[in-house]
Amino acid sequence: MKKRTVILALALMLVAAASLAAQTYYIPLISKGFQHQFWQAVKEGALKAAKDFNVNITFEGPESEAMVDKQIDMLAAALAKKPNALGFAALDSKAAIPYLQQAKAAGIPVIAFDSGVDSDIPLTTCATDNVAAAAYAADKMAELIGGAGEVAVIVHDQTSRTGIDRRDGFVNRIKSKYPKITIVSVQYGAGDHLKSTDLAKAIIQAHPNLKGFFGANEGSAIGVLNGVKEMGKIGKIVVIGYDSGAQQIAAIRSGEMAGAITQNPVGIGYKTVEYAVKALKGEKFPKFIDTGFYWYDKTNIDDPKIKAVLYQ
Predict the structure, then answer these.
(1) How many CA atoms within 13 Å lie on the side-chain side of 95?
(2) CA atoms lying within 13 Å on the CB side of residue 109
(3) What is the pTM of this model?
(4) Smaller CB count within 10 Å for the chain: N or C?
(5) 3-class DSSP string for 248-262
(6) Which residues form the Periplasmic binding protein domain (predicted)?
(7) Is beta strand 238-242 parallel, antiparallel or unpaired with respect to 26-30?
């Protein structure tokens, strides 16, 4: 009888262990938006990683990158489901911190992606080095306008880490390296191409000698391009963008846009899930995972290395 009891207990332990081994981690990813193709590409990478690492993920974000409150609501709802880990791309680098503190208190590892927060709670951030990327865009702008003249910048926001870093990377490089270039305006279009178009047109009207325009994300860049077109300034104002998408790719092929910085959005999504799994396994890793960036224009847009990180 005693032997049978021991065997039964061992069997129950094996069943419990098998059940635990079969448990699939749940990892929600809260992005900054859903309206740009960039975020669809990030989602694609996250889904691929979910399949590779056998985890369940969800991927959501607000309709607009101006909807900080809605993103916070999504974050709160995700935490209420008691996930195993969390991926988060902050619209506001400070607003989410109380909720991330809740995650930390509950033992939920947080992996930041694309845009970090002003906190050390995320175990790492999977993102582009946006300061370096925007500085490279500034170097290209200087080269294309002959090292002198007036330029302007439209950024998606001044609250997210990506908005701040891309603005500062571009502006600081121009100020420190190109004394004959003047930045006449820095405006914020919420990543909305219609709003960014209106801003671009107003800047061109106010500064008729403008020689260059930098749009710091997909929506900003398309807005700048449309504004330059509507003001009849194609060929007279150098336009440099950020990210890709069908419209930017077509504009670069046609020569309407000089070029752009592309990130590796599929890689950002993949690495976010990969490092969430590593965190759940107790692995150690750096506080920043650089997913890389590339400059592309009509001379290299068909290079296999570039095509691999462009999205339509």
Answers:
(1) 19
(2) 24
(3) 0.82
(4) N
(5) HHHHHHHCCCCEEEE
(6) 29-284
(7) unpaired
Q: Which one-letter DSSP state was computed for residue 114?
A: S
Provide the 3-class DSSP secondary structure of residue 180.
Answer: coil
Scanning the structure block, which residue is given the tokens 């500034």? 138
Joined tokens for residue 71: 């993103």
| Amino acid 23: pLDDT | 66
For 216, the token pair is: 């710091």
Give, as one character, the DSSP assignment of residue 244: -
User: How many CB atoms are closer than 10 A to CB 158?
Assistant: 11
Q: How far apart are CA 108 and CA 81, in angstroms?
A: 11
* Strands of the sheet with 294-296, listed across from one edge: 181-188, 149-155, 210-215, 238-242, 259-262, 294-296
Residue 50 has which token pair? 């979910």
Tell me, what amino acid is at 187? Q
Residue 303 corresponds to which tokens in the numbers above? Answer: 């290079």
First to last CA, the chain: 68
CB atoms within 10 A of CB 284: 7
Amino acid at 145: I
What are the structural domains, with CATH classification, of the chain? 26-128+265-292 (3.40.50.2300), 130-262 (3.40.50.2300)
Phi, psi dihedrals of residue 192, rounded to the nearest 5°: -95, 125
Cβ 140 vs Cβ 213: under 8 Å: no
Q: Using CA of residue 13, residue 17, residue 23, residue 25, what is the dihedral sign?
A: positive
155 in helix, strand or coil?
A: strand
Tokens read off for 201: 């047109």
Distance of alpha carbon 33 from alpha carbon 36, whole angstroms:
7
Q: Locate tokens 């339509």: which residue?
A: 312
Structure confidence at residue 64 (pLDDT): 86
Which residue is associated with the tokens 């938006």?
33
Question: Which positions of the chain have pLDDT values less than 50?
Answer: 1-3, 5-22
User: CB atoms < 10 A from the CB of 170, how many?
Assistant: 29
β-pairing, 259-262 with 238-242?
Answer: parallel
